[in-house]
User: Fold these one by one.
Assistant:
Number 1:
Amino acid sequence: MRTLLLTKVQRKASLTWHKSSPNELKTYLFLYSIAAVVDPDHSGGNEELISQRKGLTVYGGDETIPALNHLVKDGEEFSIGNITAKALYTVCHTRGSDTLFIGGCGRFFEGTADQMYNSLINVLGKLPEDTKVYCGHEYTKSNLKFAESIEPDNQVIKDKIQWASKNQQTIPSTIGDELKFNPFMRVNVDSVKKATGKNDPIEVMGALREMKNNFK
């Protein structure tokens, strides 16, 4: 599916993002819901949510998302109140995205290393560096520990680990920050290549994912 790029935010809009527990939202009036992936922990509450709120628009990029009634396409722009959103095609973890995490990325459940490379490097990596990253899971501390194992001399990673240990919330990040410490966005960097024993960046991406899968 897509990454949702918010380009203009003028005032508050009523929306929920990846909500799986609609009963927690009973005191709010939502007009829109965004579900990027079909995983139950992201979209499992869609059908109940839409039954509670007639006229709710459910956006998503995978036709199998429950209760989906607005399938977005790559590059499509749409409005949520006065928020302008643009969908970007960033698949790999699933057909529905869930690609970039703080300091890491999703497992390659339905995609390949070259797809993740395209999503992280050619699409997200080309966004303005001050673009904020609000990801679907918060695995920041474990991701940073893995990043440090790949680049033990990277001071940015060390500083980020110290910062994460003091904060209750580590989201959002920025694209610029991810390019400095996220190994999956640094597959063209010599130190990351050396850690994987690979030279081709797509092979580096695949090797990193296997290493992360087995990292403890």
Number 2:
Amino acid sequence: MKTEITLRNKSSRDVTVYLTLGATPGCLQDVSKVPWIDMVLSSLRGYFVLPAKKAVVAYAPDGMGFNGNFCFGGPPINCPTPQFHNGVNLVEWIINNAFQAGNPQETVNISCVAGVNAKVCVLLAEIAAKHGQVPPNPWNAGPSHPNVGEFENGPIGTNTGRVGVFPVGCDDCTASVSPPACTNSPTYERPQSNAICTVQRDADANGGLIIVEYYGIL
């Protein structure tokens, strides 16, 4: 059994999606192996165009973990640019990582630490929810959020309090410890009062589907 991930473009326009893999031992480190990728920029980074109202096939590599991030409309950047004047946000994840030592967790989050350019929603229990079921291996964001089925980011200034989201400038979720040092950074948001930024579950309880939905530029 393995957890897979897919993307849906819910907007009315095509979008370029950048995939950056983590250099994580035991996880895929060759982006050309991912079936969606049209252009390989390096062993760890590539991109593809996701047409409007379309989705990609669900995927995870066989026999290894899958760790990386998605960025929509352009590559990941730490500081705003003329094209992305409020920076960019990422969807970050690691799945199928039960081989790691200790108490490994599958995790997924939306990082707005370096800014926000896109509205994104992550669905974790869509099939179960349609049938009124609680999945047998639910995702959580700590004791106060024991069963997280979906989460999403909002525009700058609205991400504090959102489960699964690192607010702008809050690299440690509940604090700004070492965010990107930019002279033109967007205004930092208030840190979360509780550690709810990362949605996780035990890695040995993997399986099912993570759906990342893109709704457009903010």
Number 3:
Amino acid sequence: ANEVKKLGGSLLMETQAGKGSRFMIRLPLSLSVGHAVILRVGDEQYALPMPTIEGVVRIPREELQQHLLSQEPSYLYGGYKYRLQHLASFVGLDAGPLPEEEPTLPVVLVRAGELSTGVVAEEMLGTREIVVKPVGPQIAGIRGVS
């Protein structure tokens, strides 16, 4: 209930003996709910919206390292060429070396319009339903943040 209130919404609960309970959550129209894949880079977690995701592949670490060190890092999958980019460098963090303890790493294949990118992350934590609300003007201009 506190989380709903923080978002500017309300929670109503009705209970009828023998019939059960009904919960009604009201959220402002400026919010939307969607599904996202949650990725980890270092101690940070990032959400990629599901509608933009074409798929997820696990690439052997050595092969991925070779792709990332090439002149134009890319990965061919399903007839499409995906430009490879480490999520850390995309959000302005130091990408560092790929984790040695992982034999394969997840690459999330994202397509938005004509752009195709393979997002490299240290770990894929799964999927979640997320609440999306507009960001303030202070960070609205930052590339890749919404």
